[in-house]
Write a structure and sequence with these properties.
The chain is α+β, with helices and mostly antiparallel strands and about 280 residues long. The chain contains six helices and 13 strands. The chain folds into two domains: about 40 residues, no CATH class; about 200 residues, Class II aldolase/adducin N-terminal domain (L-fuculose-1-phosphate Aldolase), CATH 3.40.225.10.
C-alpha cells in the first residue's frame, strides 16, 4: 500500500478505520474531529490551538505595555532635559509622570534624586496605584501620591512638576491669598479649553509639607473646590500641572511658567515704581 492509499484509508469512517499495523479494518466508534496519523489517534487540536492563541495574546499585551512604557519614559526624559535647559528643574528638583495603563493603573514616573539635566529613559519606574515598583530600579518620589491624586481627580494622562524661580517666589508672595489669579494675557489661550485672553486662571497655593498622605488629601479637596484650574502651587516649592497626554501637559508647563514670569516681573516693576515715587 502506498502512502496516499494509507492516508486515504486512515480517515475516520462510519463503521471503522483502517489499521495500518494489522492491515485490516477494525470497528471503532466515530471520534469526531480526530485523525489517524501513522495508525495512531491524535487528540482534538482545538484546546492546544486555543492555548497557543491565549499565550500569543498575553505576549502581545505584555510587549505593548513594555513599548508604551519605553515610549513614555523617553518622552518624559526629553521634556525633563528641556525644562532643565530653561532653568525650571535645576539639579534633582521636579518629577514627571505619565499613564501607561488605566486598568489596572500603571504609571511611569521619575526615580527619586536624579539629575534632570542628564535625565534618561532608564531613570523611570513603573508603579501601580499602591506605589509598588513593577519595573525599573530606584525609588519613586514621595510626591508620587500627588501624581496619583491628580490622575484620579482630573483623569490626567501626564503630570509634570517644576521648581522654577518664579513659581517659588510667587507661591510665597501670594500664599496669604490662598492662590494666584492670572487674567488678560493672550498666552492663557494655550491652556486646554481656554478660548479668550479674558479667562481668569486661578492657581491655588497649598502649604508645603513632608506629610505626603495628608498633602494628597488636601490636594483632592482643592481640586474639587476649583475644578477649572489647570495647575496649583506648593508654597516655597514649585508648580504642578497636568494634561490629557504628555504633549498637553508639557504645553501647560510652558504656558504657566511664562505667565508666572510675566506676573512676577510685573509685580516687581510695580513695587519698584512705588518705591521710587
Amino acid at each position: 500500500m502506498n502512502l496516499d492509499t494509507f492516508r486515504g484509508a486512515c480517515k475516520p469512517c462510519v463503521g471503522g478505520v483502517f489499521c495500518a499495523r494489522k492491515n485490516s479494518l477494525r470497528l471503532t466508534p466515530r471520534l469526531p474531529q480526530r485523525e489517524i496519523i501513522a495508525g495512531l489517534y491524535l487528540s482534538d487540536p482545538e484546546p492546544a490551538m486555543l492555548q497557543q492563541r491565549s499565550s500569543r495574546r498575553r505576549f502581545s499585551a505584555k510587549h505593548s505595555a513594555t513599548s508604551a512604557f519605553r515610549e513614555l519614559a523617553a518622552g518624559l526624559a526629553e521634556a525633563g532635559r528641556a525644562f532643565y535647559a530653561r532653568g525650571w528643574v535645576l539639579g534633582t528638583s521636579g518629577n514627571f509622570s505619565a499613564i501607561v495603563a488605566r486598568e489596572p493603573l500603571r504609571l511611569a514616573i521619575t526615580s527619586s534624586g536624579v539629575d534632570k539635566g542628564a535625565l534618561t529613559a532608564t531613570q523611570f519606574l513603573e508603579i501601580d496605584e499602591n506605589l509598588n515598583i513593577l519595573r525599573g530600579s530606584g525609588a519613586p518620589s514621595a510626591e508620587a501620591l500627588l501624581h496619583l491624586a491628580l490622575v484620579r481627580a482630573r483623569g490626567a494622562g501626564a503630570v509634570l512638576h517644576t521648581h522654577s524661580v518664579w513659581s517659588t517666589i510667587l507661591s510665597e508672595s501670594f500664599a496669604g491669598h490662598g492662590g494666584l489669579a492670572i487674567s488678560g494675557y493672550e498666552m492663557l489661550k494655550g491652556l486646554a479649553g481656554v478660548a479668550t485672553h479674558k479667562h481668569r486662571e486661578w492657581l491655588p497655593i497649598l502649604e508645603n509639607s513632608q506629610d505626603m498622605p495628608e498633602l494628597a488629601r488636601q490636594l483632592e479637596a482643592i481640586l474639587q473646590r476649583y475644578p477649572g484650574s489647570h495647575g496649583f502651587l506648593l508654597r516655597g516649592h514649585g508648580l504642578y500641572t497636568w494634561g490629557e497626554n504628555l504633549s498637553e501637559a508639557r504645553r501647560h508647563v510652558e504656558i504657566l511658567e511664562f505667565l508666572l514670569e510675566v506676573v512676577g516681573r510685573t509685580c516687581g516693576s510695580a513695587r519698584g515704581h512705588a518705591a521710587a515715587v
